[in-house]
Design a protein that fits this description.
The structure is a homodimer. By secondary structure, chain A is of the alpha/beta class. Chain A is about 40% helix and about 25% strand. Chain A has 3 domains: about 160 residues, NAD(P)-binding Rossmann-like Domain (Rossmann fold, 3-Layer(aba) Sandwich); about 160 residues, 2-Layer Sandwich (Dihydrodipicolinate Reductase, domain 2); about 80 residues, ACT domain (Alpha-Beta Plaits, 2-Layer Sandwich). The longest helix of chain A is centred in the first third of the chain and has 21 residues. At the A-B interface, helix 1, helix 6, strand 12 and helix 12 of A face helix 1, helix 6, strand 12 and helix 12 of B.
Chain lengths: ~425, ~425
């Protein structure tokens, strides 16, 4: 199998490294031949080290893609538009695809997968979600005897690192972010991660796999982690919870899909609560299988490259010896779009934190508003007053419909004695 | 794909149930046709309910296996000799195999897999290890870009339930076993589970997958859980550990294999420590991938049946549309046997508990023997004396070669002031 590789960054470099050490073993043990036929990057500088090692290199991806001797294109460049063009052209040229590009798949999967099906080509993307965790393969093959009812996942290492560090040390969000950047766990511009966009891409892909329907990542509810304060983390800890940014899928009624990304209070005895640092985890509740959890490195050079190589091996085993038919990706076809449950229609228990100017009359006003909106309160915690002009009141609600809660919060936020916008974090059940 | 099913017990019944609900979906979504062509069980009584539903049934497995219209034999009967005969005959008749029979695979895999290779047939066994956890598929495909350096697994739900309950409640081994039996988590004759034989079967299979070599389950060291006392559990808890029965694989030097099954003290902050009850878990440390953990239901009707059905779907996707070549199972070929590291050559930290008649002179004797054997002691805990004739002394050793430790323990056990055989439990790390 002749491979054309696009991208020589962190993951691309890792793929070359693994193939150099393992290709002989695959040939000997599995009888498959993974040949790195051409390496493509943006500039001569980037391809130079590979050229020096004797690889055929190019800076012109489209010419490589047109080469009839290339069997599979490995796209590890990142971004949306160029990868879309490369991949669709490669598929039209009957080449298989291996990619780690969750952003492109979440945005253009509805174009890529039908085209792949039409051309009887495979598109493998184990590395796109959860790095080294073989979750795509598990969902497409291992769990096929069961239906996913609920999925909750920690799939952004940057956010999980920040929240874990805040929990361990009591530091602020800003300080934890700085530390993450210093340690190479956050980008210099971390918006994409901390706003939850990366998690939304991955959650959309996983929700599509769960439901068998197209889930548009732009339509799922996303709240990032930037507004989580040290106080929220510490309050959660006192209650026996950790705050985690979760990607969530729930099977709704009549095949509807409840997919979303937001911080959650996870009880300490839940398996996801002990997943700390840059580790990723996918927790599933399935009808026949029951509960399963897979954890592992969510990012990083060799874990992700190793997932790409596993896809290449799968592909070679499928195509060298006849043709294992690609999986039909009806779930990524726009015509098969999921009916999404609006976040306003979902229900949760809520952690609410109000910042008020004094602590006397305001409590009566707040509880009055909850009562008017028929929201039951499980507990109220008034924290020690350090700054008399800035009193924190924490309220835990019973399970409430989100639309009701939002109405109540709007009323509370407009009280003159409430000095900051209220904080609202959902409980994971 | 026409399926012949042998065994209508818990798992077999579950497979029929899942196929009844999902076969139409597989046909529609994956374009594969899973047809339950014949159901075989030991007696007319056992097949009667299936006959009544309109299935073709038989009590004669060999005739079913000879039927040229059957494409795959699903063996869910259990035991060693009959399954061996059915499976080898089926392979000679060019039929694929799906089985959950770890005992037979551990014992006769070296016969079954070469025969399968010769006949270009698949033998799939996802359900044999870890029930609903897709660990076999992950190791054969998902982790192929990486090499396993260490594996530690909890793969016997009965033992893990007993040890978990002892830890939660302080109850004795005997009481926890009784409770497990009452709840259906232990067999009436639980020897096979509590002596670690079931774990050894599974550990041998996983170690073979890790090393690519044949690991003979009869040659790996096995210690069960029957000698773990409430006192050991409570001492471990005080030290910040849980006691778990682990299956262990370590990559040794020069390709040697260190495979074993024994109780271990697992630190509370290790992911395996929070795997309680009948849940199974496989923890891997790989060169490229780093650490991963997979947990899930290790047994039970639908989780295990769901793994069998996943194998059937894989098989149908591989064989309906050409021929995806079966994985070469060189790792299960006797000629490719692993050099096993003898347990005496391994090193651990050890938890040791001595029962002595008095607490005065004996401590000096014990520490003297350790000193003579050049064993360093990390800490000594002398428990409150309740019965003056039966004093417990707990010693934690530093990392020590097992052969040295055994020599010391033999000398200690022969002291006249030591009244019971000493307890020795290894630390994980």
């Amino acid at each position: 199998m002749r491979i054309g590789l696009i991208g020589t960054g962190t993951i691309g470099g890792g793929v070359v490294e693994i193939l150099e050490t393992k290709a002989a073993q695959y040939r000997e043990k599995l009888g498959i031949n993974l040949e790195l036929a051409c390496i493509c990057a943006k500039s001569d500088e980037e391809v130079a080290p590979y050229k020096a090692k004797g690889y055929k290199t190019t800076t012109d991806a489209m010419t490589m893609i047109a080469d009839p001797t290339i069997d599979v294109v490995v796209e590890l460049a990142g971004g949306y538009e160029m990868p879309r063009k490369w991949i669709t052209t490669a598929l039209e040229n009957k080449k298989h695809i291996v990619t780690a590009n969750k952003a492109m798949l979440a945005k253009y999967g509805h174009e890529v997968f039908p085209l792949a099906e039409k051309n009887n080509c495979h598109v493998l993307f184990e590395a796109a979600v959860g790095g080294g965790i073989p979750i795509i393969r598990s969902m497409q093959e291992g769990f096929v005897g069961s239906e996913v009812e609920q999925l909750s996942c920690i799939i952004n290492g940057t956010c999980n690192y920040i929240l874990s560090r805040m929990g361990e040390s009591g530091m602020s969000f800003e300080d934890a972010l700085k530390e993450a950047q210093l340690n190479g766990f956050a980008e210099r511009n971390p918006t994409f991660d901390i706003e939850g966009v990366d998690s939304a891409h991955k959650t959309a892909i996983l929700s599509s796999l769960c439901s068998g329907k197209y889930v548009d990542f732009e339509k799922i509810h996303v709240t990032g982690v930037a507004k989580i304060t040290a106080e929220d983390i510490s309050n959660a800890k006192e209650l026996g919870y950790k705050i985690k940014l979760l990607g969530i899928y729930r099977r709704g009624e009549d095949g509807a899909v409840d997919a979303r990304v937001h911080p959650c209070l996870v009880p300490n005895d839940h398996l996801l609560a002990s997943v700390d640092g840059v580790i990723n985890a996918v927790y599933l509740h399935c009808d026949n299988l029951g509960q399963t959890l897979q954890t592992g490195a969510g990012a990083g050079r060799l874990p992700t490259a190793s997932a790409v190589v596993a896809d290449l091996v799968s592909l070679a085993r499928s195509t060298d010896t006849g043709s294992r038919k690609p999986l039909p990706m009806g779930w990524f076809n726009k015509e098969n779009a999921a009916k999404l449950v609006p976040i306003s229609e979902t229900s949760s228990r809520y952690y609410l934190r109000f910042t008020t100017k004094d602590s006397f009359g305001v409590l009566a006003s707040i509880t009055g508003i909850f009562s008017q909106n028929e929201i039951s309160i499980e507990s109220i915690i008034q924290k020690d007053v350090k700054d008399p002009g800035k009193v924190s009141i924490v309220v835990i609600s019973e399970c409430t419909k989100e639309s009701k809660m939002l109405t109540a919060l709007e009323a509370i936020d407009s009280l003159s004695s409430v000095s900051e916008k209220s904080q609202m974090i959902r409980f994971l059940k």
